[in-house]
């Protein structure tokens, strides 16, 4: 499908939408129903809505409907208020953009309108530093050469300026002609691809020649970019409003389900099934008691004959009574806690990159606990592990290597002498370095030249050529000027054959200004250039140079050229023009035409560029591997370069502790055989040996087609992988393979080519690097340097997992505690479904009394940060899900049942006599619950801070203050109750006895467990308590060794049992592995 844009034609301007931007989710009229619908799509909210509706039936409800409606309405209001606030801020942002003033041309007259009133086909005029209001096709600029500069950081995060070029068809038009121009732009329907725009433009006579002119992304000005260093520019609006490329790219990412959330969902279902069983059993006994004894009790006033549904009344009463088994506030509590975890990451000064002034940032507040369970890290290389600061180091020209002696070709006397003597091979080599690129030279006021480049490699090559006296001094859309040894040379830029990840090379066709010769200048990867040499050229020396430079960890490019005959070029140019004008499969057609020209090349030489490792990368990778995390490196570089970087950054350890297996071959059969050989070696290798495999993109493509299952098994058995020559899609495919077998993955990268991988992983981390902010914006977390990953995972991730595990299980504990007391009371109330607690107490218990103390855990640290970083193996505890699983939940379930029994029987024994009122009995039992929950939170806390003390004991005091106030209200059932209880010594003795009996066995069990069966955490805590701060010692290591071995054996057994049919982590079978 295509769109026809009629330039400056008011009669057709309303065929498409206007330029009004709307990022809001709601309107004033649909907010309430839409938000209500979204909230009640959740199973838990649907469940409590059903319970709340049943409570409106007075015949069956044992308590006031306010006990459920109150918390449900509060939760709804909190969630709705947050949504409304976020949407209101989006509305204000949209309003500011929509009401911005812009200049347009109407019938040759400039007028100012609001940005929202721009329509497709309008001619929009921009001035320097203006924000571009919609997607435009550039038709004129103030620059005589038809060039303008734009800043795209708001669109793709890249901070370097981009050049945009006026199409040749309108390049020589005057301002008056531009304001009156008519024509048609034929372009695709709106899409979100900011890298591509395949369109054509035709201007009507008599303005210009009526020929079709191809348009590319380089002829566009996209919404959200800024015009820089250009006095004015004008363009035709082709996409407006939410149909711009920026608008089409907006959207809400699919929510990620964490491993902890998946476990909580399963536990919720298990509790719901238990609740159904309890309701049926109690309902059965309730109906039996009613018919055998209840009907005989006159004071119960049962009718002689009830309605037909009478047998359902008691089970439904118990359903309402037991509905609190599932904590209504758990989601709000966890959302609040996770929001605080995210702020801890944002506020961490130790993760602040002072070099670039970049803080760590959490864009996704819902998955912090998954950081503590990461099993695989898949990392990009360039800009992620390395600095992405390219430095020209060595080169090989005409079979002579420069820079081998001192490590810097720019200081090699032989090369400098050759430059001075105008060696023709050196001159051609430097000419390709200076001209075959997309670099833009910028002159300052003092006539010095600096370079703006989209590629760090190109910038390094142009700067190196400049240092060797081959300086690119000016460049526009059609000409380039270089200066060599004080002599200037002009070239006409005829065509640019752009670089793509498939072609892996770029070329330019230039025409010498003095001789009129037409030259093809090419540069690219060795596998893309060397196979295209002319027959008979010796390339062995260059292959050796590529191999040697790769072994040193340097990035290599091959440079070549050839003369073009004028007839040959004209024929090719015609085909290139046809391919460039195609609206369908333009990219593949252009690639085919380019390939026909890039042949019979004369190889000039090889460049070698250094990209240094970031500070702290080797130490970080070593620490993460010691924590039990497997690290893979995915890169587009050559195999030898990637392997060398892997050795430098501790990804591959030295022999004999590691073994590197290569999956490669010249044919498909060779690759498949190497895979089987690697699998055999891996299965027969002892666990203590680090196994790594290396493969390239072509091998992965073969394995994906013919042996995906075997490759998956190898991936599960290998601790390290180096994957080179990877495309962005293949990076994402590797992440998907690991996810498919249940591993929790983290992907980290810094460039736009890493976005697919980052979005595919369970957790995406972007580095705010020199390649821009695309990766950081697409990621769940952004950091300034790779070394901060250790704190993100080991500190924030581990603490978040520990805290989430406690908060979620405690929420079930406090709900089960009061529910079990209600169930026990049923045995004394004839299984009638009567509630022991009044409605106000039940609502306050769920919403206020027990929700605040648990939030103290968000400040809790079981061991210090220093200890975690010294003993990263402790992360295995979190990876194995040791704190949140069916076993630990059974412990909390048993504790709630035991505490309910203690509270109930002590209360009954102390207050179940003729002198005690029902409300007294209820308040004593409720007080016991409040006392116990305070001690449970306190006993399970590992550290104490001021907020923790205030929340735990402040809430404790608030309980008594609130109930004393309620006891002073004559109209309430609690009238005088708390005053009487607080004045009785027996009440305080009952509370003390309840705490002693309930907490005593728990404390004793913990003491003996820590004494005879300590976990690694217990050992580290004991050492911290005895020494004040932990220091590495042989005794500590020996004490930790047995516990660490047990954990390692557990994980090894778990991972070893995973076959190719293993279900993903979030599937129904995942809990068996966690």
Automatic annotation (TrEMBL):
Residues 1060-1074 have a biased composition (Polar residues). Its cofactor is Mg(2+). Residues 1053-1074 are annotated as: Disordered. It is a multi-pass membrane protein. The keyword Amino-acid biosynthesis does not apply. The chain crosses the membrane at residues 267-288, 308-328, 816-845, 892-912, 921-938, 950-975, 987-1008. Belongs to the cation transport ATPase (P-type) (TC 3.A.3) family. Type IV subfamily. This is Phospholipid-transporting ATPase. It comes from Digitaria exilis. Keywords: ATP-binding, Magnesium, Membrane, Metal-binding, Nucleotide-binding, Translocase, Transmembrane, Transmembrane helix. Its main location: membrane. The lineage of its organism: Eukaryota, Viridiplantae, Streptophyta, Embryophyta, Tracheophyta.
């Amino acid at each position: 499908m295509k769109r026809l844009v009629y330039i400056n034609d008011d009669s057709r301007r309303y065929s498409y939408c206007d330029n009004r931007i709307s990022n809001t989710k709601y309107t004033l009229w649909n907010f309430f129903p839409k938000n209500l619908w979204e909230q009640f799509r959740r199973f838990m909210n649907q469940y409590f809505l059903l319970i709340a509706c049943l409570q409106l039936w007075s015949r069956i409800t044992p308590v006031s409907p306010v006990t459920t409606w109150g918390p449900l309405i509060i939760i709804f209001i909190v969630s709705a208020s947050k949504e409304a606030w976020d949407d209101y801020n989006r509305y204000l942002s949209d309003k500011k953009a929509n009401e911005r003033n812009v200049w347009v041309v109407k019938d040759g007259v400039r007028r100012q309108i609001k940005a929202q009133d721009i329509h497709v086909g309008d001619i929009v005029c921009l001035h320097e530093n203006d924000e571009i209001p919609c997607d435009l096709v550039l038709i004129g600029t103030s620059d005589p050469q038809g060039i303008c500069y734009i800043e795209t950081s708001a669109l793709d995060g890249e901070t370097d300026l981009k050049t945009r070029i006026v199409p040749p068809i309108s390049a020589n038009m005057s301002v008056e002609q531009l304001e009156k121009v008519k024509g048609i732009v034929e372009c695709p329907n709106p899409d979100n691809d900011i890298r591509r725009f395949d369109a054509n433009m035709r201007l009507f006579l008599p303005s210009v020649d009526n020929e079709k002119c191809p348009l590319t992304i380089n002829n566009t000005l996209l919404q959200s970019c800024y015009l820089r260093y250009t006095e004015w520019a004008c363009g035709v609006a082709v996409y407006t409003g939410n149909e711009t490329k920026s608008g089409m790219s907006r959207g809400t990412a699919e929510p990620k389900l964490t491993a902890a959330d998946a476990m909580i969902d399963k536990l919720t279902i298990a509790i719901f099934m238990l609740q159904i069983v309890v309701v049926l059993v109690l309902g059965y006994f309730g109906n039996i008691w009613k018919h055998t004894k209840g009907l005989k009790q006159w004071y119960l006033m049962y009718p002689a004959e009830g309605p037909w549904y009478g047998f359902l009344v008691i089970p439904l009463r118990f359903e309402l009574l037991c509905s609190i088994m599932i904590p209504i506030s758990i989601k709000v509590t966890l959302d609040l806690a996770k929001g605080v975890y995210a702020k801890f990451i944002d506020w961490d000064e130790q993760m602040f990159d002072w070099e670039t002034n970049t803080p760590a940032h959490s864009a996704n507040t819902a998955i912090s606990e998954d950081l503590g369970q990461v099993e695989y890290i898949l990392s990009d290389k360039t800009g992620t592990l390395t600095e992405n600061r390219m430095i020209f180091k060595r080169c090989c020209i005409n079979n002579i290597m420069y820079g081998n002696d001192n490590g810097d070709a720019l200081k090699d006397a032989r090369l400098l002498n050759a430059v001075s003597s105008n060696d023709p091979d050196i001159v051609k080599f430097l000419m390709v370095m200076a001209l075959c690129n997309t670099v833009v030279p910028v002159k300052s006021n003092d006539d010095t030249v600096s370079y703006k480049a989209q590629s760090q490699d190109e910038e390094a090559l142009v700067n190196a050529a400049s240092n060797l006296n081959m300086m690119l001094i000016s460049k526009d859309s059609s000409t380039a000027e270089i200066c060599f040894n004080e002599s200037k040379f002009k070239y006409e830029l005829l065509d640019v054959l752009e670089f793509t990840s498939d072609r892996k090379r770029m070329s330019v066709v230039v025409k010498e200004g003095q001789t009129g010769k037409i030259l093809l200048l090419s540069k690219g990867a060795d596998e893309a250039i060397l196979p295209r040499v002319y027959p008979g050229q010796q390339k062995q020396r260059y292959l050796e140079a590529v191999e040697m430079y790769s072994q040193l960890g340097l990035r290599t490019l091959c440079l070549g050229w050839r003369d073009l005959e004028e007839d040959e070029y004209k024929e090719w140019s015609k085909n290139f023009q046809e391919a460039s004008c195609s609206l369908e499969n333009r990219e593949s057609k252009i690639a085919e035409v380019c390939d026909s020209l890039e042949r019979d090349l004369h190889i000039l030489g090889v460049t070698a560029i250094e990209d240094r490792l970031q500070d702290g990368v080797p130490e970080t990778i070593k620490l993460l591997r010691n924590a039990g995390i497997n690290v893979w490196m995915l890169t587009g570089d050559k195999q030898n370069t990637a392997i060398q970087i892997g050795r430098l950054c501790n990804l591959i350890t030295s022999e004999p502790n590691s073994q590197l297996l290569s999956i490669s071959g010249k044919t498909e059969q060779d690759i498949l055989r190497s895979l089987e050989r690697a699998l055999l070696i891996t299965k027969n290798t002892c666990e203590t040996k680090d196994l790594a495999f290396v493969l390239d993109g072509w091998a992965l493509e073969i394995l994906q087609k013919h042996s995906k299952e075997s490759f998956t098994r190898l991936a599960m058995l290998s601790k390290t992988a180096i994957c080179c020559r990877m495309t962005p899609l293949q990076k994402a495919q590797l992440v998907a393979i690991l996810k498919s077998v249940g591993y929790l993955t983290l992907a980290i990268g810094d460039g736009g080519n890493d976005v697919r991988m980052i979005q595919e992983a369970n957790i995406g981390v972007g580095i705010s690097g020199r390649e821009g902010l695309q990766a950081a914006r697409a990621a769940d977390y952004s950091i300034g340097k790779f070394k901060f990953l250790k704190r993100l995972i080991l500190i924030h991730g581990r603490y978040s997992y520990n805290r989430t595990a406690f908060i979620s299980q405690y929420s079930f504990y406090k709900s089960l505690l009061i529910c079990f007391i209600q169930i026990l009371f049923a045995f004394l109330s004839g299984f009638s479904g009567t509630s022991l607690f009044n409605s106000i107490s039940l609502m306050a218990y769920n919403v206020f009394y027990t929700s605040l103390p648990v939030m103290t855990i968000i400040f809790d640290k079981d061991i210090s940060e220093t200890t975690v970083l010294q003993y990263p193996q402790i992360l295995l505890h979190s990876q194995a899900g040791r704190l949140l699983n069916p076993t630990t939940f059974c412990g909390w379930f048993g504790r709630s049942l035991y505490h309910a029994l203690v509270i109930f029987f002590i209360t009954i024994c102390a207050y179940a006599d003729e002198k005690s009122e029902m409300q007294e009995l209820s308040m004593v039992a409720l007080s016991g619950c409040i006392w116990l929950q305070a001690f449970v939170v306190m006993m399970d806390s590992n550290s104490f801070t001021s907020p923790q003390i205030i929340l735990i004991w402040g809430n404790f005091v608030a309980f008594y203050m609130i109930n004393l106030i309620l006891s002073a209200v004559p109209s309430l059932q609690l009238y005088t109750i708390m005053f009487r209880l607080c004045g009785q010594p027996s009440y305080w003795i009952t509370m003390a006895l309840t705490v002693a009996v309930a907490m005593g066995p728990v404390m004793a069990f913990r003491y003996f467990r820590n004494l005879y069966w300590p976990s690694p955490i217990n050992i580290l805590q004991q050492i911290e308590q005895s020494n004040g701060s932990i220091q590495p010692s042989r005794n500590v290591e020996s004490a930790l060794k047995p516990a660490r071995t047990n954990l390692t054996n557990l994980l090894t057994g778990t991972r070893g049992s995973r076959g190719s049919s293993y279900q993903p982590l979030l599937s129904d079978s995942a809990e068996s592995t966690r």
